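User: Structure tokens for both sequences below?

Assistant:
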Amino acid sequence: QSYCHRLQHDMYFLTSTSRLNEQVVDKIILQLNRVYPQILTNEEAEKFRNPRASLHTRLSDLLKHLQKKGDRHCQEFYRALQINAEQLFNDLPSRKILKTPDPTEIDTDKEQYMLNDRGPVFFLACFSVAAGLALFWYCCNSDTKVVGRARRILGFSPIIIGRHVRNICMLYLEDISRD
């Protein structure tokens, strides 16, 4: 996508109220006036820095002027915008389109945030509560069938937990079944 098309796409975003203040626009105009090759002549720079006109009008006229001049001029505007207002440059709609090559593709950062908004600590806490309740249910129930079920579950557990831990659990269950 050419810089002129990008600038046309970003024009509404840039000219909306309180995006760019007067000092930043003046810095951009001065930079475009002083770079090599000179993008704006001295007369053009004075016209776009005229304090009698509103900032919105001056900025709109500047962007239209740069689009008429060609792709190189628009590219220099983006460079000046990046130098003088980097945060605004990163928030441009055309930059977001460039970062996502397929507009139908799901933004994985947003999707990941939406699915994992509670974080790993919440998952571990819920898992610990569930495991504790399961262990409490198996060990504290007076029904002997429960101990038998727990024995069967722990019998398949060498893959899940270490043999040492499994042996301790089996000894505990045998002690409970004797009582």
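Moving on to the next sequence.
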Amino acid sequence: SFTDSPVILKILQNWVPRVSHYFDKEHYTYVGHQIVIQESIEHFGAVVWPGALALSQYLESNQEQFNLKDKKVLEIGAGTGLVSIVACILGAYVTATDLPEVLENLSYNISRNTQNTNMHKPEVRKLVWGEGLNEDFPVSTYHYDFILATDVVYHHTALDPLLETMVYFCKPGTVLLWANKFRFSTDYEFLEKLGNIFNTTILAEFPESNVKLLKATVREN
């Protein structure tokens, strides 16, 4: 199912040299906006991973192909919030989700980088993969145009609930964009499972960073 050949890209050094002396802040520029991200050393989800840089860069450069303006966008495993902030700058209605312990830092980054602008106000919500999906995000109310996920696949035990979550939110018409660093056999196994369920295309590869960016959509019978 991986027919089209992906474009080969390099993650650009989009971050700005640090002006502040704080070790925990990273400065980026996307879509003409300066974005300041506070990382947290306590949590995996609170560091900017390469997949987030790859997807942010791709969304910025492919606005015609993936026009996020006024679209409903859900990010799962939003981490520091960089991708959600970029989607917000591109005009989307964004819901950024992650585990409870990550939400404080995520909310801080998102509000700090999107306040005082004319963007749609993003929402930050708890989402534990595979848990309470029907209760928290009932299908009757929630339909997303785009599901964004970056570096959600690594050595962890929640891969089946993650896949279940992707399947739950991917309705006909929804586009899932998933960027990930591929290191382990489990990463490729997940990719294979995804390809068995969805129409899957590799849009771009960033070989220096071992990142692949995939697009997946529901198979319509």
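User: Anything stand out in the second?

Assistant: The longest helix spans residues 185-197.
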